[in-house]
Design a protein that fits this description.
This protein is mainly β and 156 residues long. The protein contains no helices and eleven strands.
């Protein structure tokens, strides 16, 4: 099995994260291995941080930390899978109380990567959570199409 990792730029100046672009497998026959078409992953960037949440909506010096999420998969059988995510639930000036948070964002105390090292106190910041709301599977060779809508989540 092979894989093709990438480190695509975030577009916001923050350090990029590793992204798996594709996986290639081999089938086996009586005469040896047969390479299969790759499974490829399409990504779309979303901001991880709730930018301006700690400054009341004013610009802050820390980037929003855009990161890729899978929004499409091309399968080795030439099918496609599409993924839809929930919208952002928090924004600057509109974050819940950390002690009674029921929304799709979460607080964390942290120090940004380029924070000064000496005498720097970690601060409370907010990050988005994106949940999958829909998965669409399509067989482009024939006529198969299946839509799965996810409306409720079990909590662990």
């Amino acid at each position: 099995m092979g894989h093709d990792p990438l480190v695509p730029p975030t577009g916001d100046g923050s350090s990029p994260a590793l992204w798996l672009a594709s996986i290639t497998r081999s089938g086996h026959t009586g005469t040896g291995k047969v390479p299969l078409p790759p499974v490829t992953f399409k990504g779309k960037t979303y901001p991880n941080r709730v930018e301006g949440a700690t400054t009341g909506g004013d610009p802050d010096p820390v980037p929003p930390m855009w990161r890729y999420r899978v929004w499409g998969i091309d399968t080795e059988t030439r099918g496609t899978i599409g993924v839809t995510y929930s919208p952002q639930d928090c924004k600057a000036g509109d974050v819940p109380s950390p002690s009674s948070n029921t929304r799709r964002c979460y607080p964390i105390k942290w120090s940004p990567p380029d924070a000064p090292a000496a005498n720097y106190t970690p601060y409370l910041d907010w990050f988005h959570t994106y949940v999958t709301t829909q998965v669409l599977e399509t067989d482009v060779i024939c006529c198969y199409r299946r839509l799965v809508r996810l409306t409720a989540w079990d909590t662990v």
